[in-house]
């Protein structure tokens, strides 16, 4: 897995942008966007990016179990930045599997026989000399 840093992201952004944008301007835009998102989350608000995800600002308190003592502990509400991915992002990371069609499933299922089921008659085994 390749890790893309700000410089590589700025280069890719400058190359693919429909506008005539320089590498330095692209890098400045990315840094400004990062700074703005940090400020918004720090103020307790959420950042919603279409087709990407939400960066929530606050996480609700909950109870956890201490693995050493087994004692239940309260984790207070705290502010954090997590990415909750939207469906387009999830599908890009893990493409959905194709569903089996009804025709294919009918072919694989066993056909019912139209003949009557008869039970075999028990016969005594013959002794051989």
Kindly name the structural category: alpha+beta
Helix content: 25-40%
Low-confidence stretches: none
Mean pLDDT: 79
As a whole number of angstroms, the C-alpha radius of gyration is 31 Å
- The shape, in one word, is flat
Record field, number of beta strands: 7
- Amino-to-carboxy terminus distance: 77 Å
Largest sheet: 3 strands, antiparallel
Give the helix tally: 4
Strand residues, percent = 15-25%
Order of helices and strands: HHEEEEEEEHH
**Physical arrangement of strands within the biggest beta sheet:** 1-2-7
Could you describe the 3D structure shown?
The protein is of the alpha+beta class. The chain has a domain at 1-43. Helices cover 35% and strands 16% of the residues. The chain has four helices and seven strands, in the order H-H-E-E-E-E-E-E-E-H-H. It has helices spanning 6-16, 23-42, 87-93, 102-108, and strands at residues 47-49, 53-55, 58-59, 62-65, 72-75, 78-79, 84-85. The strands form three sheets. A three-stranded antiparallel β-sheet has the order 1-2-7. Strands 3-6 form a two-stranded antiparallel sheet. A two-stranded antiparallel sheet has the order 4-5. A hairpin with a 3-residue loop joins strand 1 (47-49) and strand 2. It is flat, with a radius of gyration of 31 Å. The termini are far apart. 2% of the residues are buried. The model has no long low-confidence stretch (mean pLDDT 79).
